Amino acid sequence: MANIYDQAYFGEQLIPFKDANLSVASSAILYGLSVYTVFHVAHTPDGMLAFRLPEHFERLQNSAKIIGLEPPTGQWDYEAFLNAAKELMKANQPTRDVFVRASLHAEALLSGTRSRGVKTVFSMFVYDADPIVPRDGARLKTSLWRRIPDIAIPSRAKVNGAYVNSVLARQDAIDSGYDDCIFLDSSGHVCELSAANIFMVRKGVLYTPDTFTDLLEGINRLSIIQLAQDNGIKVVERSIDLTELYIADEVFMSGTSAFLSPVVEVDARPLTAEKSITERLGRLHHDVLHGQAPAYADWLTKLA
Length: 304
Ligand code: PMP
Hints:
Elements: E1 7-10, E2 14-16, H1 27-31, E3 34-44, E4 47-51, H2 53-67, H3 78-92, E5 98-106, E6 120-128, E7 138-142, H4 163-175, E8 180-184, E9 190-192, E10 197-202, E11 205-208, H5 219-230, E12 235-237, H6 242-246, E13 250-255, E14 259-266, E15 269-270, H7 276-289, E16 300-302
Parallel strand pairs: 7-8, 7-14, 11-12
Antiparallel strand pairs: 1-2, 1-6, 3-4, 3-5, 4-16, 5-6, 8-9, 10-11, 10-13, 13-14, 14-15
The protein binds 4'-deoxy-4'-aminopyridoxal-5'-phosphate (PMP).
């Protein structure tokens, strides 16, 4: 398990992480009724730099809006979110790259299966930024479990309860000796991984499933599309057949906890050794996260 730092933000104050707890009778526990986001904070000579913080805040707001959860004060406030993240860095003083998980939880007790008007609480905690997949090449297995469709539990909303779907599919992949799963959507098209988006390269063009494919609209996915376009790589968002992955020139994944990582095998079919676009975008993505790409400095927010 990744190291979790001692101080957490819970209910508008910093408290010891071990005391940042919810009741077993809360809707967060009973129904998985929390929304969340995880963002990367790089430890750099210029300070602790958070990647795309306003976008993470906006996605958290949107997730809550979709589910019908409201923040404790009834008002969303980016300044308060930013200050909480700054206070967390000051209190924990990380000396390496970290992730911050920010959530809005339904903390009301026995409030039944509803969301609007249910009492909520914010939490934020910090943990070491260890990747969730091997960075030198992941092996993926197509899951028998399909991605939950937008008309059941929307993947566009990052809601905790929906992650049972990811757990089922990833555990099945691990049980079969793979690193992670590939989800297909209900129409059988390639969707995403358990906690990362997917890209493939065919004949120099970068393809990724479009946002009608029941995927989470990853903040890294959008960033990589822009990085590719800015570097003269053509990007197409469209439906992808599974067998296209088998014969792709390159496949990679993107996500906060997956970074930009190459895929070397899909369903017992090794991919080609070609990795030039993956490596090029991977280096750029790393530099952007760590404040080493001046053109993208405005994607970073200094927290300490
Ligand atoms: N898909 C799913 C299901 C995820 O959980 C994540 C991780 N948040 C992603 C994609 C990647 O999203 P992001 O780039 O915003 O981390």
